[in-house]
């Protein structure tokens, strides 16, 4: 199954606090919820879920969210009412648009005609045809949430200060823009030079990230992306440092200067090879002597 569209109508006695879920996704990167499904629906873990706002609410209708199925389907029995058992799955929603900002039905029909949107508006669920999946993903990249948070966790107990969020805007998620960027700049990190492919071989293919040099808040509505000038490849470490502790992302040059100035960790015994490499980095940054 390429994916499934699940219908949700706030006006049908649903107790889901959608606004709280939107805030949770914005803060932590996802919101885990139990979802009631038709027992005939064969939905497997890791299936893509597209949330469709239905009904006659003031907000209107349209595509409003995306998530991933996290469990096999299971039955939940109400205490004292075994006959009322229903089938459910756990869904981790990773992108939710605020009510009123959903992608409207006319846009859906025009951009992804392979899905019968009129029928989907009245059904609790609908499978996404394989042929329609690329168009649906493209539309979501272009008109879905402008930024998503990815929480990076270390193993074990994670206090709040141990979690780092990296803001990834829609331009960094655009597959075509990413392809052009890497074709021009290569796949090594533009700041530290690390290459996933050189270090991990085939397993490291396509692991490098791309970074948008201009903050999304500074972009106007008529902005046209230049994948070569606006995007650069960065490893996850440098990408995190580009955003860490600053209101405006650090440039590649700033990251290179930070790396060069650091040289070694406090308390580390520095060998001649490390000192020579540090001196070489400084000489390259300073350029040829006048």
Order of helices and strands: EHEEEEEHHEHEEHHEHEHHH
Helix and strand content put the structural class at alpha+beta
Largest sheet: 7 strands, mixed
Relative helix content: 25-40%
Contiguous uncertain segments of 5+ residues: 147-158
How many strands? 11
DSSP helix count? 10
Whole-number radius of gyration?
23 Å
How confident overall, as mean pLDDT?
78
First-last Cα distance? 64 Å
Coarse morphology:
elongated
Strand content: 15-25%
Task: Provide a compact summary of the structure.
The chain is α+β, with helices and mostly antiparallel strands.
Describe this protein's structure:
The protein is an alpha+beta fold and 290 residues long. The chain is 30% helix and 24% strand. The chain contains 10 helices and 11 strands. It has helices at 18-28, 105-111, 117-120, 133-143, 175-185, 196-200, 227-230, 236-243, 252-262, 272-286, and strands at residues 4-8, 31-37, 48-53, 62-69, 74-78, 81-96, 125-127, 147-152, 164-169, 209-212, 231-234. The strands form 3 sheets. Strands 1, 2, 3, 4, 5, 6 and 7 form a 7-stranded mixed β-sheet that branches. It has a two-stranded antiparallel sheet with strand order 8-9. Strands 10-11 form a two-stranded antiparallel sheet. α9 (252-262) runs antiparallel to α10 (272-286). The longest helix has 15 residues, at 272-286. The radius of gyration is 23 Å and the shape is elongated. The termini are far apart. The relative contact order is 0.10. Residues 147-158 have low confidence and may be disordered.
